[in-house]
């Protein structure tokens, strides 16, 4: 697939002009935030944007209606959230959120800063499209199915499988070689790329990058037993006992929008925070009694600690007023449906602008609501699509 339009992925230094104002996207490799960094994001949301921190499907964050781009850049640089002006948009790294604390073969989190540093140290890798995604899966299979371009998947404590374009290559390496191999794959992608944004868009891209790696490294082969990669929705929610008997709290965020005031309360807990690609977060390394108090304070503020909450079944695009292409205020319609106990609106009797007063429950399970047929932000896997049209919502059940 050829593309002639420029790479328009937003960052901090190049904003996207959304319908409701400038939008900034801040990369958070591995979703790893210190309490101080979360506090800095909360302050910036209040002082420089609309007062909310939007979580993205890549474990990054966004600010809408940015009022002062230069001030935002200075603020994030001081917080360690903008370590490179040249590579800021290519630091898209997702890691298994609970790795090293709950389950998994091995802890992939130490690979995150090594991969991030390797990306920033290579001048040419600044040319990577802003849509390229790196994944680090500890073997539980939670992030390998998210459609990454370049990833590793732990098979045991001492072996990683190399994934390209979301599929296994058969190449196997020990943990000490995983980051260098991913960086080599990124260089190979650039050599083969001809204006394509993603590896899967290059004809035979996975096979060609694999061949390139095997040619440059004679110690590698692709003889590993293939593993199946599937898209899953393993959202870590609620009370999670870590390997060290500390507690991690997984918290859902309604439609991925975290108010700055709530973020300030989370930062005040003074524990490491992990953002997930499911627009949720994990507060880690808590003792039991403080964990109980956190739930008591933050649940009334809107954080979701109940794995059965209907809010965990829905996602949505920006909708009106943030997107000029949207036919309706999708998020208001989703909220009305969830609050009234209805899962989906009827497909034919309601126009988006008329609300959902007479809507019926006609489906259940994971859903994504879109203001137009582009379906922006749609998660991977089996998802029912709820798409606004001029005549109402059309509904396509999950496969």
Quick structural summary:
This protein is α+β, with helices and mostly antiparallel strands and 399 residues long. The protein is 24% helix and 22% strand.
Overall pLDDT: 91
H-E order: EEEHEEHEHEEEEHHEEEHEEHEHEEE
Q: What's the β-strand tally? A: 19
Distance between the termini: 26 Å
- Helix proportion range: 10-25%
Question: Can you give a write-up of this model?
Answer:
- The relative contact order is 0.11.
- The chain starts with 15 loop residues before the first strand and ends with a strand.
- The protein has a 5-stranded antiparallel sheet with strand order 1-2-5-4-13. Strands 3-14-15-12-11 form a 5-stranded antiparallel sheet.
- It has helices at residues 35-48, 69-78, 111-121, 175-192, 205-216, 260-268, 288-298, 330-339, and strands spanning 16-18, 21-26, 32-33, 52-55, 61-63, 93-95, 134-137, 150-156, 159-164, 167-173, 238-241, 247-252, 257-259, 273-275, 280-286, 314-316, 367-370, 384-389, 392-396.
- Helix 3 (111-121) packs parallel to helix 4.
- Strand 18 and strand 19 form a beta hairpin.
- The chain is 24% helix and 22% strand.
- With 399 residues, the protein is an alpha+beta fold.
- The model is unreliable at 344-362 (pLDDT under 50).
- The chain is globular, with a radius of gyration of 21 Å.
């Amino acid at each position: 697939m050829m593309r002639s339009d420029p790479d328009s992925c937003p960052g901090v230094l190049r904003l996207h002009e959304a319908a409701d104002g400038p939008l900034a996207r801040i990369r958070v490799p591995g979703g790893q935030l210190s309490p101080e960094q979360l506090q800095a994001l909360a302050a910036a949301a209040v002082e420089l944007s609309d007062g909310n921190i939007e979580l993205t499907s890549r474990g990054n964050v966004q600010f809408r209606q940015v009022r002062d781009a230069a001030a935002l850049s200075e603020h994030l640089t001081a917080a360690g959230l903008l370590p490179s002006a040249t590579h800021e948009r290519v630091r898209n790294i997702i890691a298994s959120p609970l790795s090293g604390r709950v389950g998994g073969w091995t802890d992939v989190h130490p690979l995150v800063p090594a991969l991030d540093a390797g990306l920033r140290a290579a001048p040419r890798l600044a040319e990577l499209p802003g849509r390229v995604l790196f994944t680090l899966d500890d073997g539980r299979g939670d992030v390998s199915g998210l459609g990454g371009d370049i990833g590793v998947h732990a098979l045991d404590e001492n072996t990683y499988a190399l994934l390209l374009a979301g599929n296994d290559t058969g190449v196997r390496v020990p943990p000490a070689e995983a980051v260098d191999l991913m960086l080599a794959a990124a260089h190979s992608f650039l050599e083969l790329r001809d204006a394509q944004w993603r590896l899967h868009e290059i004809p035979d891209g996975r096979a060609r990058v694999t061949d390139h790696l095997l040619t440059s490294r004679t110690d590698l082969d692709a003889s590993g037993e293939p593993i199946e990669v599937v898209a899953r929705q393993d959202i870590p929610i609620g009370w999670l006992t870590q390997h060290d008997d500390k507690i991690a709290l997984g918290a859902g965020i309604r439609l991925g929008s975290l108010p700055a005031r709530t973020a300030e309360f989370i930062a005040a807990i003074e524990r490491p925070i992990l953002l997930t690609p499911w627009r949720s977060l994990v507060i880690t390394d808590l003792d039991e009694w403080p964990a109980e108090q956190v739930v008591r304070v933050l649940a009334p503020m809107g954080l979701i600690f109940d794995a059965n909450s209907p809010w965990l079944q829905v996602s949505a695009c920006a909708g009106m007023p943030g997107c000029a292409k949207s036919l309706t205020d999708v998020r208001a319609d989703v909220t009305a449906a969830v609050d009234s106990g209805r899962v989906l609106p009827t497909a034919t009797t309601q126009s988006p602008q008329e609300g959902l007063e007479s809507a019926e429950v006609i489906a259940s399970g994971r859903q994504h609501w879109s203001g137009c047929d582009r379906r922006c932000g749609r998660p991977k896997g089996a998802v029912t699509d709820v798409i606004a049209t001029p005549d109402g919502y059309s509904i396509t059940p999950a496969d």
